[in-house]
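Lab channel / #folding
Pinned by the channel admin:
"Please post every new chain as: sequence first, then the structure tokens as a reply. Keep commentary short and put observations after the output so the thread stays searchable."

First post following the new format, from NK:
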Amino acid sequence: MMSTQPKVSILVVCFNHAKFLRQCLDSVIAQKTNHPFEILIADDASTDGTQDIIKEYHARYPDLITTVLLHEKGYGDYGKSNCISIEKEARGTYLNILEGDDYWIDENKLQLQIDLLDQHPETVLCFHNALITYDDGSLPSHEVNPIDQKDHLTAADLISETEVWFMATTSVMYRNGILYPFPDWFYKSKSGDIPRYILLTKRGDIRYLNRTMSVYRRHSAGVSYTDHKHDAGFLWNRIEMYENIDKELNFVYHAKIQKNIARYYLMMANSKQYNGHWYWERYYALKSLQLSKPNSKEHIKEVVAAHIIPHSIMKRYAFIKGKILG
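Reply from TO:
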């Protein structure tokens, strides 16, 4: 067991990552730093041999891998509770979360982020560029952040009329010990990253390092592929999360958050539970229009045509219009 106080705790969270985990752990072990760091691993009841790999690495690097949690029963909440379970054990000044199917590609990543946070005590979180790769080859690899990515950000940059995502989990380092206790609503959210970053910005700002130092892997078993945006349960959870974020930020960004919530109500109208249901599809479509207060007549017409007027009437209208124009 490591006796020296670690500067950074790397939280490796796993679920059925046997195919990728060795590359992930090797990329962490290869880091060159001026400070000690520790690796903590939590597994969410994997069934593919992931836990055997964790045991193997723990036996090989007992002084570096200080904590291992092998859960026998999965939490079933997109890995968030698995992450929280290991986060509580972290001793480092700073924290990194790394999912077991991702990895780092720059051996100086940790030291560069340590230096930045040490030099800017007002900064609670820093991130860098990351490469997204697609295991199925469906898309070419590309970077998360654009050339003109802002290098100094606040809570305002995390709030928009749509869902904001520009910080790959593989790239984020943040200060330990300033989030506890989490508010009750945090535990109910299926998303961990979005509310975590919002809560952090209540305590300081964010800085960006313009350097590509990690890989975010997209594959069919990954968490990003399980965001069921056609499922009412997932959508209700997102709506509740943004309503709580609105309260958490004292409604400073209320207009933008309402428009974002409106998007989820429109998705609700399209969900597998409510699309085609005469009453509820129309109710959620109208709720979306009410919250979004659209300025565009075209947007109103589009929603009305898609969800308010019965589809049979719209088909008949399109047929008659075609005959007239034809």
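NK: The mean pLDDT is 89.
TO: also worth noting, The CA atoms of residues 122 and 181 lie 20 Å apart.
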